[in-house]
């Protein structure tokens, strides 16, 4: 099934969610977030599904939000499609495997923090450039990235927005392995299909136990980030950053204090 450039299919116990908008670098619109949220909910409810696979297109996982769509229809509260997608991914107690086929920017990177397995192409570039856009981290990144990387490396990735390679993602513990681009999806699918041989109840309960200690803290952080993110969207700094993006120039933040 294909809805608004999100393709879904279920085969051999694996529900695949494929981001399929390569002409726009797989930039995510509100309709795409809605489709992904629905696909995750459907996979969660379907007993024959043992695992979920999220992937993109050759050379691109997702470049993050479609800025034009995002500015025309910014998130309005936790019921907006982007937050429904976040909620659906957080609530999925089946294993989620990501095949990062190329660049993963913004939420393309932060969604990986909530996947159970991440396999990255050796051609991939990952980045969380929120501050450079006059924004703040989202999807719990302000909690999870410092936890995993330590505060100094987290500052490089979140405050400076430094991009990094698939190899560095694996070294930092943000990915299970880096693979040749042609092997990423097949490896991710092999891992997802292994859950056909495991007891599904034990898998689900074990995942819940692994996530339980900071579940409520994470949700609180995501809500706080969302409130600040929405406020920052209206800030003069963000307006300058977005105008510079659309005008294909470097932003000038020199007048801000």
TrEMBL record:
SUPFAM superfamilies referenced in this protein's UniProt entry, alphabetically: ClpP/crotonase
Keyword Isomerase (UniProt): yes
Pfam family of the protein (one): ECH_1
Location of the protein in the cell: Peroxisome
Signal peptide per UniProt: none
UniProt keyword annotations, A-Z: Isomerase, Peroxisome
Domain of life: Bacteria
Major location (coarse): other
Record InterPro entries: ClpP/crotonase-like_dom_sf (IPR029045), ECH/Chromodomain_protein (IPR051053), Enoyl-CoA_hydra/iso (IPR001753)
Record keyword Ribonucleoprotein present: no
Protein name per UniProt: Enoyl-CoA hydratase/carnithine racemase
């Amino acid at each position: 099934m294909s809805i608004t450039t999100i393709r879904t299919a279920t085969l051999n116990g694996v529900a695949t969610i494929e981001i399929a908008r390569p002409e726009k670098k797989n930039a995510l619109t509100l309709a795409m977030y809605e489709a992904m949220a629905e696909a995750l909910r459907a996979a969660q409810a379907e007993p024959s599904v043992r695992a979920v696979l999220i992937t993109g297109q050759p050379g691109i996982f997702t470049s993050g939000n479609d800025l034009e769509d995002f500015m025309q229809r910014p998130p309005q509260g936790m019921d907006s499609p982007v937050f429904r997608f976040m909620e659906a991914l957080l609530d999925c107690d089946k294993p989620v495997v990501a095949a990062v086929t190329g660049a993963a920017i913004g939420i393309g990177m932060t969604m990986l923090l909530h996947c159970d397995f991440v396999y990255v192409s050796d051609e991939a570039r990952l980045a969380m450039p929120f501050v450079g856009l006059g924004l703040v981290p989202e999807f719990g990144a302000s909690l999870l990235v410092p936890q995993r990387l330590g505060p100094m490396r987290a500052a490089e990735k979140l405050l400076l927005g430094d991009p990094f390679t698939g190899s560095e993602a694996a070294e930092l513990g943000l990915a299970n392995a880096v693979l040749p681009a042609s092997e990423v999806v097949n490896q991710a699918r092999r891992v997802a299909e292994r859950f056909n041989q495991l007891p599904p109840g034990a898998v689900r309960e074990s995942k819940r136990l692994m996530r339980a200690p900071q579940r409520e803290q994470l949700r609180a952080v995501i809500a706080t980030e969302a409130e600040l993110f929405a406020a920052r969207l209206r800030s003069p700094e963000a307006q300058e950053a977005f105008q510079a993006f659309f005008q294909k120039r470097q932003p000038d933040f020199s007048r801000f204090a």
